[in-house]
Amino acid sequence: MPTYDYICENCRHSFEHLQPMTAKPIRKCPECGQKKLKRLLGAGAGIIFKGAGFYQTDYRSDSYKKTESSEKAPPENTAAKKTPESGTKKPEGKKKA
What we know:
The chain has one helix spanning 62-72, and strands at 3-8, 14-18, 37-40. It is α+β, with helices and mostly antiparallel strands. A 3-stranded antiparallel β-sheet has the order 2-1-3, with no helix packed on it.
């Protein structure tokens, strides 16, 4: 839903109001009570696309980008450093009777 700017032609009170595009403009001023409100034309807000298929990193801070790149880095080779868990037994060969 867009935010519209309004100004009262009677008391010059200005404010923003969030309403659907299909809603009729407000006419009664919340300050003076007169039906002299006028909806102003505005440039609106810039569109920020986020999600798959858009450039979501265009609006990210440098610190966020550094953190994200460090998380994507491959982990150190820790497989050689691991020891078998306690309580697990290695498979043994068959015993001769």
